[in-house]
Task: structure prediction
Amino acid sequence: MIGAAARPALSPRWRWGAAVAVLAAACYAPFQLVPFHVFQLTMVLVYAVALLGLNLLVGHAGQISLGHGAFFAVGAYVAAILLERWELPHLLTLPFAAALAFLLGLGLGVPAIRLRGLYLALVTLAIAIFLVPLLKRFEGMTGGSMGLTTAKPVPPAWSGLAEDQWLYFLTLAVAVAAFLLTAGLLRSRVGRALHAVRDNEAAAEVMGVRLSFYKTLAFAWSAMFAGAAGCVYTWVIGFVSPDSFTVNLSINLLAGLVVGGLGSLLGPLLGALFVMFVPSIAQSVNDAAPGVVFGLLIVVVMYVAPTGLSGLAERLIKKIPRKE
Result:
C-alpha cells in the first residue's frame, strides 16, 4: 500500500502565504524571461496539472499507476482532433478532453479495484505500452506516425501579450483552477475517504467507506487531470505524435511525483520542475548516458529527502524562528 510519509504540518497562515508568494512570482516571471524560458515554465505548469491527478491516486488514495501518460495522451489527441478536424475554439477542447479522460479512468477503475500493488502496476503499465501502436494504427483520425499539427492560441489584441506569454497565462489559469479544485476536494468528505482507504483499507471499510466506489473515483479524477494537462500540452506545443507519449512519460511522471513528495499539494509542482529540468541537466552532464545521470539524481534526491522535496521544504520552514 502506498501512502504519504508523515511530515510536520504547517499552519494555514504559512500555507496561504507561500501560495500567494508563488502565484505572485508566477505572474511576474514571464515578463522577465526570454521566450524559451517562458516555454519551459509553461511546460512545468502542464506537468504540474498531470501530477496533481497522479497525486490524488498515488499519494492520497494509496493506489499506483505506471500508465498515466496514456491519459495525458488521450487529452492531447482529443484536443488535437477537435482543433484540426472540427476547428473548435481552443478553450472548448478542454472540457471534452477532461471528460473523455474521466470516463476512461472510470472504466479502468472498475477492474482495478480488484487489483493492488504489483498487479495493478502491471495492468496500468500495459495500457501505456499498447497506446503508441494503437495511435499509429488509426491513421485517418490520429495522423498515424506523422501525428497532427494544430494552431496555437492567438493572444487577443487587448492583452498586449506575446504568444509565449499568452500561452503561459492560459496554462497558469488552468493550473490554478486545478490546484484549487484539488484542495477543495481533499478538504471534503471525498478527501477524508481517500485518506482512510490509503491508510488502512480494512479499517476504512469497517467505518462505512465504500472501497470500490472511492478507488474507482480516484482513478477517474486522476485521469481527468491528466487529460486536461494533455489538452493544454497540445495548445502549447501545437503538435502531437505517438512517439511523444511512450511509456517513458508515465515513468517520468511517477518518478517526478515521488521526488516532489506524495500526498502534498506542493509535491506536484516540485515534481513538475524535476520532470522538466532534470532530464535536460542529465543530458548536458553526459550525452552518452543521460538515463544513468537521471537515475543517479533520483537516488541522491531520495537519499537526502526521503519524503520528497516538499517534505524537505516543510522541515526547513519549521526550523525558521517565529515570533510568539
Q: What stands out?
A: DSSP finds 14 helices and two strands in the chain. The beta strands are 148-149, 239-240. Confidence is low (pLDDT under 50) at residues 1-8.
